Amino acid sequence: MNDKYKPLLISLKPNYADLVFSGLKKAELRRHLSGGLEGRDVFVYVSSPVKILRGGFRIGQVWSGTPKDIWKEVSCMAGVSRKTFNEYYSGAPVAFALEIIDVWEYKTPKTLDELRMKFIDFVVPQSYRYVKNDEIRFLKKLQRSPKILSSLNYTTTTDLNVRHNKYLQTFPKLVAL
Fold this sequence. Notes:
single chain; 177 residues; Archaeosine Trna-guanine Transglycosylase, Chain: A, domain 4; 6 strands
Protein backbone atom coordinates (compact mmCIF):
# COMPACT_ATOMS: atom_id res chain seq x y z
CA MET A 1 0.00 0.00 0.00
CA ASN A 2 1.27 3.44 -0.97
CA ASP A 3 2.11 5.77 1.97
CA LYS A 4 -0.33 8.25 0.44
CA TYR A 5 -3.22 6.11 1.71
CA LYS A 6 -1.74 4.30 4.69
CA PRO A 7 -3.30 4.86 8.11
CA LEU A 8 -1.24 6.50 10.82
CA LEU A 9 -0.35 5.27 14.28
CA ILE A 10 -0.05 8.05 16.85
CA SER A 11 0.91 8.04 20.51
CA LEU A 12 -1.21 9.99 22.96
CA LYS A 13 -0.75 10.51 26.68
CA PRO A 14 -3.53 8.79 28.65
CA ASN A 15 -5.28 12.04 29.59
CA TYR A 16 -5.48 13.17 25.96
CA ALA A 17 -6.62 9.74 24.79
CA ASP A 18 -9.42 9.87 27.39
CA LEU A 19 -10.49 13.24 26.00
CA VAL A 20 -10.53 11.87 22.43
CA PHE A 21 -12.53 8.76 23.31
CA SER A 22 -14.97 10.69 25.49
CA GLY A 23 -15.66 13.10 22.61
CA LEU A 24 -14.25 16.14 24.40
CA LYS A 25 -11.15 16.50 22.23
CA LYS A 26 -11.99 17.17 18.59
CA ALA A 27 -8.58 18.36 17.36
CA GLU A 28 -5.16 16.75 17.77
CA LEU A 29 -2.19 19.10 17.90
CA ARG A 30 1.11 18.33 16.20
CA ARG A 31 4.39 20.20 15.71
CA HIS A 32 5.30 18.26 12.55
CA LEU A 33 3.03 16.67 9.97
CA SER A 34 3.02 15.29 6.46
CA GLY A 35 0.60 16.57 3.85
CA GLY A 36 -2.40 14.83 2.35
CA LEU A 37 -3.82 13.41 5.57
CA GLU A 38 -7.50 14.37 5.20
CA GLY A 39 -9.78 11.31 5.34
CA ARG A 40 -7.04 9.01 6.59
CA ASP A 41 -7.58 6.56 9.47
CA VAL A 42 -5.52 7.03 12.62
CA PHE A 43 -4.89 4.31 15.20
CA VAL A 44 -4.36 5.58 18.74
CA TYR A 45 -1.71 4.05 20.99
CA VAL A 46 -2.05 5.23 24.59
CA SER A 47 1.40 5.74 26.11
CA SER A 48 2.81 4.77 29.50
CA PRO A 49 1.62 3.76 31.99
CA VAL A 50 -1.40 2.44 30.03
CA LYS A 51 0.43 1.04 26.97
CA ILE A 52 -2.51 -0.09 24.82
CA LEU A 53 -3.79 0.33 21.30
CA ARG A 54 -7.21 1.67 22.24
CA GLY A 55 -8.95 2.55 18.98
CA GLY A 56 -8.80 5.34 16.48
CA PHE A 57 -10.43 8.04 14.43
CA ARG A 58 -10.56 9.48 10.96
CA ILE A 59 -8.90 12.78 10.09
CA GLY A 60 -11.30 15.44 8.91
CA GLN A 61 -9.82 18.83 8.19
CA VAL A 62 -6.11 19.61 8.69
CA TRP A 63 -5.16 23.08 9.84
CA SER A 64 -1.69 24.61 9.58
CA GLY A 65 -0.45 28.08 10.38
CA THR A 66 1.24 30.04 13.07
CA PRO A 67 0.56 28.83 16.60
CA LYS A 68 -1.51 32.00 17.16
CA ASP A 69 -3.68 31.23 14.11
CA ILE A 70 -4.13 27.58 15.08
CA TRP A 71 -5.16 28.56 18.62
CA LYS A 72 -7.85 30.84 17.17
CA GLU A 73 -9.06 27.99 14.95
CA VAL A 74 -9.09 25.03 17.36
CA SER A 75 -8.85 26.30 20.95
CA CYS A 76 -12.33 25.03 21.81
CA MET A 77 -11.59 21.60 20.28
CA ALA A 78 -8.01 20.88 21.37
CA GLY A 79 -8.57 19.77 24.97
CA VAL A 80 -5.69 21.85 26.33
CA SER A 81 -5.31 25.11 28.18
CA ARG A 82 -3.76 28.15 26.50
CA LYS A 83 -0.69 27.73 28.73
CA THR A 84 -0.21 24.09 27.69
CA PHE A 85 -0.74 25.02 24.04
CA ASN A 86 1.86 27.81 24.22
CA GLU A 87 4.39 25.54 25.96
CA TYR A 88 3.89 22.81 23.35
CA TYR A 89 4.40 25.16 20.41
CA SER A 90 7.15 27.25 22.04
CA GLY A 91 9.72 28.08 19.36
CA ALA A 92 7.69 26.46 16.57
CA PRO A 93 7.07 28.74 13.60
CA VAL A 94 4.31 26.45 12.28
CA ALA A 95 1.58 24.56 14.13
CA PHE A 96 -0.70 21.79 12.86
CA ALA A 97 -4.03 20.44 14.06
CA LEU A 98 -6.01 17.41 12.88
CA GLU A 99 -9.80 17.40 13.10
CA ILE A 100 -10.90 14.23 14.91
CA ILE A 101 -13.99 12.60 13.39
CA ASP A 102 -15.53 9.10 13.41
CA VAL A 103 -13.95 7.98 16.68
CA TRP A 104 -14.00 4.27 17.54
CA GLU A 105 -12.68 2.08 20.36
CA TYR A 106 -11.73 -1.57 20.24
CA LYS A 107 -13.84 -3.99 22.24
CA THR A 108 -10.61 -5.52 23.51
CA PRO A 109 -7.70 -3.06 23.25
CA LYS A 110 -4.32 -4.61 22.47
CA THR A 111 -1.49 -4.25 24.95
CA LEU A 112 2.03 -3.38 23.88
CA ASP A 113 3.11 -6.93 24.76
CA GLU A 114 0.36 -8.39 22.55
CA LEU A 115 1.34 -6.13 19.68
CA ARG A 116 5.02 -7.11 20.01
CA MET A 117 4.11 -10.80 20.13
CA LYS A 118 2.15 -10.40 16.90
CA PHE A 119 4.69 -8.09 15.23
CA ILE A 120 8.25 -8.70 16.35
CA ASP A 121 9.38 -5.29 15.05
CA PHE A 122 6.41 -3.30 16.37
CA VAL A 123 7.55 0.23 17.23
CA VAL A 124 5.58 2.77 19.22
CA PRO A 125 6.07 6.14 17.56
CA GLN A 126 7.31 9.18 19.44
CA SER A 127 4.81 11.25 17.50
CA TYR A 128 3.36 9.31 14.57
CA ARG A 129 4.28 6.80 11.89
CA TYR A 130 2.64 5.03 8.98
CA VAL A 131 1.08 1.66 9.81
CA LYS A 132 2.79 -1.25 8.03
CA ASN A 133 0.80 -3.45 5.63
CA ASP A 134 0.69 -6.52 7.91
CA GLU A 135 -0.35 -4.32 10.84
CA ILE A 136 -3.14 -2.75 8.77
CA ARG A 137 -4.66 -6.14 7.98
CA PHE A 138 -4.56 -7.15 11.66
CA LEU A 139 -5.87 -3.85 13.05
CA LYS A 140 -8.77 -3.63 10.60
CA LYS A 141 -9.94 -7.10 11.71
CA LEU A 142 -10.11 -6.19 15.41
CA GLN A 143 -13.65 -5.88 16.72
CA ARG A 144 -14.80 -2.37 17.46
CA SER A 145 -17.21 -1.43 20.23
CA PRO A 146 -20.63 -0.22 19.14
CA LYS A 147 -20.65 3.48 18.33
CA ILE A 148 -21.49 5.26 21.53
CA LEU A 149 -20.00 8.58 20.58
CA SER A 150 -22.65 9.55 18.06
CA SER A 151 -24.54 11.28 20.85
CA LEU A 152 -21.45 13.40 21.53
CA ASN A 153 -21.50 15.18 18.19
CA TYR A 154 -21.79 18.81 19.18
CA THR A 155 -23.92 21.18 17.18
CA THR A 156 -22.36 24.33 18.54
CA THR A 157 -19.00 25.48 19.81
CA THR A 158 -20.77 26.51 23.01
CA ASP A 159 -21.82 22.89 23.69
CA LEU A 160 -18.22 21.72 23.37
CA ASN A 161 -16.86 24.60 25.46
CA VAL A 162 -19.29 23.88 28.30
CA ARG A 163 -18.33 20.17 28.37
CA HIS A 164 -14.61 20.96 28.03
CA ASN A 165 -14.68 23.54 30.85
CA LYS A 166 -16.52 21.07 33.07
CA TYR A 167 -13.80 18.49 32.32
CA LEU A 168 -11.04 21.01 33.13
CA GLN A 169 -12.68 21.75 36.48
CA THR A 170 -13.12 18.05 37.27
CA PHE A 171 -9.67 16.87 36.20
CA PRO A 172 -7.31 19.87 36.29
CA LYS A 173 -4.17 17.81 37.00
CA LEU A 174 -4.70 15.58 33.97
CA VAL A 175 -5.11 18.45 31.54
CA ALA A 176 -2.03 20.21 32.92
CA LEU A 177 0.20 17.22 32.04
